[in-house]
Amino acid sequence: MPNAMMETPIASDFLKVKAVIDEHSIRLVPLCIRLNRQLGPVTIRLGLDPAIYRRGKRGNMSATHRWTEMIRVEHAQSDSMRKDEPPPEDSWANFAQQFRADPRRTDDLLVNHLQRQVTPEQVVLDVGAGGGRMALPLTLCAKKVVAVEPSPSMCRVLREVAAEFDVQNVEVVESGWLDAQVPHADVTLCCHVLYTIRDIEPFVRKLEEHADHVLVVMFQAPPQSQIYPLWEPVHGEPRLALPSLPEFLEVLDQLGVEPEIEVVHVERNRGYDSLEIAKEQLARRLYVMPGSREMERLEALLPQVMEEKDGGFTIKDSVPLEPRVISWQTGN
Fold first, then answer.
1. How confident is the model at residue 331 (pLDDT cuts 50, 70, 90)?
2. pLDDT for 106 beyond 90
3. Could you give the CA distance from residue 179 to residue 83 in angstroms, rounded to a whole number?
4. Smallest Cα–Cα separation from 195: which of 173, 225, 238?
5. Closest CA to 226 of 116, 164, 319
């Protein structure tokens, strides 16, 4: 990191990063009139690589190519921050237990919304089912749910929760989606999965091929976009963003899909229980090692950019992430 940056107060560096991101905010005007009526112009504030976005808007890069390229450069940046540490074989091994949830809960607004999309005679394919946070509640209102999930630790949690709550009408397929051998269903659901899927066109086409109705759940910005402004003060370079809703709408337009989009307004996440817990979790997401210079910067930064609200600590001025349900009929 340049010495000048080290001499500048960290809080002002943080504000400079926010200003840079604001300067490169992207205004998405939906590509079809029906979406424009539903959404209006949507402003997404991200740390996108402006060059990637501008090349795509000039027509030199297709929406699917741009999607893949954004994931490639984001992963390359992540790998460079890991130093000599290889990526884990199962990236969810340390987090899978956090996805345990009571299938009969009634206070999950996204679950409630998805349950209203399914009828008792229908079979649902949940692609990237994780620990079953959506799949298991859907068994209560569907004939059957087939949960496709590549992570062994996530599959283990899903099976454990299903056994704990005596859920009988769920089948777990431990496989990636493109390799999965599954029958045709009535509905395919893909919830917060696509952000890191490089082969986006075959992935989406297979969702379409296996059901009459496709439901994709995605945030309006990348899942970790709230911590993107921390990257430059800690690492000396801005975070390269994963694709999310704006890029997915462009992909669907390229594929000739005109979806319906609904916003599910959920309760704001209460944040971290303490600054120490925030430091531990943020360090893991920022690839910061204990005892490193980056950890020193993070420790100095957090008291200045975190605020206590409603019994938890959150990043100041962070925009809450709210899920969008993108749906369309396939005509199969």
1. confident
2. yes
3. 31
4. 225
5. 319
